[in-house]
Amino acid sequence: MIYFASPCHTHTMLLSSQNLYIIKNHRHSFKVSDQKVNVSEVLRSIENVIEDVIMSLSKNKAPILILRNRSDWGNIHFTEAVGFQMISNCTTQQIRSDSPKSATKFALCLKILSIIYKMVQTNTYATKRDIFYTDTVLFGNQRVVDNIINDISCMLKIPRRTLHILSTSKGCIAGDLSYIEEDGTKVNCTCSTTTPVPSNVEGIRNLITDAKFILIIEKDATFQRLLDDNFCCKMSPSIIITGKGVPDINTRLLVRKLWDTCHVPIFALMDADPHGIEIMSIYKYGSVSMSFEAHRLTVPAVRWLGLLPSDVYRLNVPMSALIPLTKEDQSKLTALQARPYIAHESAWKKELDIMETSKMKAEIQALTSFSTDYLSRIYLPNKLQFGGWI
């Protein structure tokens, strides 16, 4: 048995050679594998690394985890075809078992890796929240667990699902779509009711739709409003989907799967503010922290349908319906203007410039100043018919 005691924590980690996993420093191409990794390969990789750990200990050397810096912009390469991708020779950080600053994280990594090994070995699954609740005092908060799991997936170049870790879905979908889930459950989405995004998007099959377009909606309130207005029925066949703000992984996976399967236009309906634009860019080009999975999560074909800052002034939306940019908004706007994709999105830059000059933002609800159903009855139909997207 191997004991690792954290000097910063009252808990002592007890791990055996059968459930211990250390992340190795891979030096080759940085891309999570598209191919399914079988159980024996995952387990064997763990066992190989354990040998390295034992070898370090036998030489009186403290084991070290080498983690890629997932949030470092210097490690990101941007292409229009994929979005943000992590470079192969990215910078790393050492998580040392003998350092007071990193010993706690080192121990927590081992704890989660031991859980993963056991789940793969026994063919069981757990959500990130399940893992957190195995020892809430030890982990402290959910974000710690989430970050470590992403680090593990990044280092192993194996999707979390293959590591038997499930993600909780918060997104919803409606419209002309049916599919069969991995367990055989048949799902029929409709134009008038909400269907939760499945927790195992990669496992769904027999996806059937006649949709002519897909509309990504930033907010759940707007999504529900379009359902109440029978938008999907009036604009049938179509699919609408929302991640309820910043999208979770499953919602992004589903949008990507729909794009790969349906080959239809995908539009984004966001607030005309920096936060909405950033959310849209996550669907389209991905996020820095998940750049190692960009090819599975991004949909570069997404087009910005609205609400455009230029629409706000073209439609003469009343000033009383507009909101001044906050300092936080202005900081985010400045950061967006420096993003590498802006150089490839000249129309986006013009919209950002309009927002910067006016120092005003508008939520989609601002359109209700014309009528309660203006969005579904006039704005969206005209946009879709006459090509009002960028």
Could you please describe the fold and organization of this structure?
- With 390 residues, the chain is of the alpha/beta class.
- It folds into two domains: 39-166, Arc Repressor Mutant, subunit A, CATH 1.10.10; 169-386, Dna Topoisomerase Vi A Subunit, Chain: A, domain 2, CATH 3.40.1360.10.
- The chain is built from 14 helices and 19 strands.
- The strands form seven sheets. Strands 12-9-15-14-16-17 form a six-stranded mixed sheet, with helices on both faces.
- Helix 2 crosses helix 5 and helix 9 packs parallel to helix 12.
- The longest helix has 20 residues, at 39-58.
- The termini are far apart.
- 40% of the residues are buried.
- Residues 1-35 have low confidence and may be disordered.
